[in-house]
Design a protein that fits this description.
9% strand; binds zinc ion; 6 strands; alpha+beta; two-stranded antiparallel sheet; 2 domains; 10 helices; 329 residues; elongated
Length: 329
């Protein structure tokens, strides 16, 4: 028999982002595009309470953009004229750190449900409740891949195999892990600090990790989790996690609200109120949302730093020749 060596499927916590909302179309409202710290993952925020002298509007920017484009296309436009027109346009758009940029007003946006008991049982229960709520609201049953991830996670929970990591098996940056041997599931572990995250964000947003790890359990059970092809396994789990995020937060309002409110993302000179782990988690979800909307799960997994293994960790020198055939996948 292969040795009962465990594999940790690590969920690395990374950077951020979401795409936002129809409200940005509001005529006359100053619209500002605010980029995340790494420049790639932007969050659009409508600055509803911008100062009165704010000169920009959607129509104004559009008109000036049209004029600038015409000027660029006109061979008779001098460089000086071009420079002046470009300055008039871009100079009028407030920068993220500009004093003209008003405070962000997210009144009326959907917010994440903050309910939590800061335990695994409550997270399971609320995941189910959110699934049922979405089903009744949208009249569409949960996608089978989500349901199965929940059910396989639930099976491990019912067997007493879902808990917090109190023995330091996970690193600081690992939110959770699905542990397994060549022949069986060992369980799902959440980082011991995961409770802090539940306390700040509630079980609704925390459940994304539950569904992710449950997706690994699902794939292991159906034979599509290969210990060597780590990236493929992560693509499958992130795809399901993204679908779950879309179910919970179809317009990305909850995530954007939480990022802005707790971590000050998109708010000039704001400081994060929440601990680093919480903001990193929100960034991580935003990253899943960003890549998911582009159906770029390979890019997500690449960016998060996952790498395939060079050899099957269940195949050891003392294993019989057919050991690899018994390993998952
Ligand atoms: Zn994973």
């Amino acid at each position: 028999m292969p040795t009962a060596r465990l594999i940790f499927w690590a969920l690395l916590v990374g950077v951020f982002c979401p795409a936002l909302p129809a409200a940005a179309e509001l005529e006359g409202a100053p619209v500002v595009s605010v980029m995340g710290d790494d420049g790639r993952y932007g969050q659009q925020v409508v600055a509803m309470s911008a100062a009165p002298e704010q000169p920009t509007s959607v129509t104004g920017i559009k008109n000036e953009t049209d004029e600038l484009r015409d000027a660029v296309l006109d061979p008779n436009t001098s460089n000086t004229q071009l420079y002046e027109q470009a300055s008039a346009l871009f100079g009028a758009i407030p920068r993220r750190d500009s004093s003209r940029m008003g405070s962000v007003n997210l009144h009326g946006w959907e917010k994440p449900d903050p309910a939590t008991n800061m335990d695994v049982q409550g997270m399971m229960t609320r995941t189910k409740e959110h699934m049922l709520r979405s089903w009744s609201e949208h009249k569409v049953p949960p996608k089978p891949e989500i349901l199965e991830a929940y059910q396989y996670g639930g099976g491990l929970h019912a067997a007493g195999l879902m808990s917090y990591d109190t023995k330091g098996k996970l690193t600081k940056n690992q939110l959770g892990a699905y542990l397994y041997t060549a022949t069986s599931a060992v369980g799902i572990l959440f980082n011991d600090a995961f409770r802090v995250l539940q306390a700040w964000l509630g079980d609704e947003l925390a459940s994304a990790t539950l569904i992710h790890e449950g997706a690994h359990a699902r794939d292991h059970a159906n034979g599509s989790l290969n210990p060597v092809e780590v990236r493929k396994g992560e693509v499958q789990a992130f795809r399901t996690e993204f679908e779950w995020l879309k179910t919970l937060d179809p317009r990305g309002e909850k995530l954007a609200w939480a990022r802005t409110t707790y971590c000050g993302i998109g708010v000039p000179n704001a400081r994060a109120k929440a601990p680093g782990l919480v903001c990193e988690y929100l960034q991580h979800l935003a990253k899943i949302q960003y890549h998911g909307e582009r159906n770029d799960f390979d890019g997500l997994v690449e960016q998060l730093g996952y790498a395939d293994r060079k050899e099957n960790p269940f195949q050891t020198v003392s294993d019989p020749p057919d050991a690899a055939g018994k390993s998952p996948g």
